[in-house]
Each structure stands twice: as structure tokens, then as C-alpha cells.
Amino acid sequence: MRTLELNFEESIEVCKALANKHRMAILRLLSERPHNVNELSERLGLPFSTTAVNVKKLEDVDLITTELLPGRGTQKINTKKYDQIIIDIAPQETKEIEETIIYDMPIGHFSDSSVEPSCGLVGESDYINGHDDPRAFYEVGRDEAQLIFFKTGYLEYRFPNRLPRGEKADQIKFSAEVCSEAPLFKLDWPSDITVWINGHEIATWTSPSDFGGERGFLTPKWWMTNHTQYGLLKNWRVNKDGCYLDDKLVNSNCTIDSLKIADNPYISFKIGVKEDAVNVGGINLFGHKFGNYRQGIVMRLLTEHK
Fold this sequence. Notes:
Blueprint: E1 3-7, H1 11-18, H2 21-32, H3 37-44, H4 48-60, E2 64-68, E3 76-80, E4 84-88, E5 97-105, E6 112-116, E7 120-122, E8 127-131, E9 147-150, E10 152-160, E11 169-179, E12 191-197, E13 200-207, E14 211-212, E15 228-230, E16 232-239, E17 242-245, E18 248-251, E19 266-273, E20 283-286, E21 297-305
Parallel strand pairs: 1-4
Antiparallel strand pairs: 2-3, 5-21, 6-10, 7-8, 7-9, 9-20, 10-19, 11-16, 11-20, 11-21, 12-13, 12-19, 14-15, 16-17, 17-18
Helix pairs in contact: 3-4
């Protein structure tokens, strides 16, 4: 879950923006998926001009982003940035200062892989290095992948460890757009997708579907709609209390201290499907130019100091 944390002073303008039923309705619609202003106007039953003004106000306080959609001229797509907002009303001088290190890893920049067909890497304009051949994952060009899929196995990403020397990690978060992998696509296709951080198994999430039939907002036009189109944005985080999946505590045995982040030159994030999983339904992993979210695998490393 993406959280915006504000102190008392920072919250004033955000609260002004939220004190409007139309803007709250816009945020609710953007929680479902990205929309353009025309779609928001139609769903809210408001004039285009009124909707545009309210979208601009939400942009001004950085609650949503607006981007040009590739391949559709000047059409603008609005996306919600946060799932919840927390306002701290405690005196600022008594609160610990929190710093965040953010790194957005392209999905083709994996450091290790072990995958089984069906599998493949897809770029902006074509498949990369063939189809259904695990050897393609070791060829030059894999860095350009915008969609990666496989039935079982894993991909490992090694993030640079930018934790300042002498400081301690307070929390680490990862987010990625993922779904199951079926032939073409299938909405009823569960798959148990597991994540490991620094070698520790964090959580297994059962993806319900391989989503297709309706084009993803970033999915290129050449990619047929009867193939996988988009996934769900999932969030994993670890702090002193344990491991969370989308803000739900799922593993209290693994904490931020057990990951030993300060002791390693890199931070390992591994994602995949086990051969002995209950639901072996594969995985699709989406990059910056495929699916519904303009990101790869995003890591947020939080530190606290007085």
C-alpha cells in the first residue's frame, strides 16, 4: 500500500483539496484503474471543464499524476499516487526524521534467473530473443524487456545498497505490477507468486487472474488484446514487526533486522513461482511501458535518525 505521510503544516493544502466530494470521487475512481478526464467526466456525470479543474487541483497537491499515453496522441491519463494519507499532528520537533531511498529497477535488469516454459521477454515492438526458450533470458537485449513471463522459477534483482554507512534500515518496501500467466489470457487462473528479500521468504500471494481482453493503458498497440494486458500493483514491506503484503501482516518471523541490510553490498529481491506451489499458474511481470503502471520494480528503503 502506497502511503503519503504528512506533518501538520504539510497537510493543510492537501486537506483543502480533499474537502470536495467531486475530488474524493475522482480519487475513488482512480483507485480502480487510471482514467482520462473524459472517462472521469462520464462516470461522475459532470461537465468536462468541471472535471478538468478538479483533476488539476489534485495534481497541484501531488495526489495524482497525469501523463501522455504513448501511441494515442495527446491523450492524458490520470493515475492515483497513494492508497492512504496519514497526518501526524504531533509537534514536529519530537518526531524522528525519516529518510527514504528510492530505486526503480527496470524489469529486464535481473541478475539471475531460472525459468521454465512457457516463458519469454517482450520489448516495445517485438519478442526479445525468441519465445519459450529459457536461454533467451541470458542473451544480450534482455535489458529492454517491458513484459516478462514464465510458468515456474524465479528472477532475482540486486538493488544497489545506498544505506548510509553507520545508519540502520527502519523499513524496506517493494512494489511491482504482476499477474498470473495463462495461455493467451484467462480471468480464472490462480497462481501462487512468492517473494524473497535477501534470501528470506517474505510472502506468497495468490494472483486470481491473467488479465486480458481489455488493453492496458501502457500496453503497445501491436500486442494483441487476446494476450496478457495488465496486472495488479502489489506491495511488500518489512519493518520491525514483520512482513506485510498490501499492508496486511503475513509473516512476523522475518523482521527488518533479520534481513541484515547494512551487512550486504546489495539488496536482493527475488520473485517467482515454486514448482510445488498449490497453484502453479505462472507469472507476468510488467515494466515501464506495459500494463497500467509506469514503473518497474520499485524499492523504497527507509531510515530513521534523531
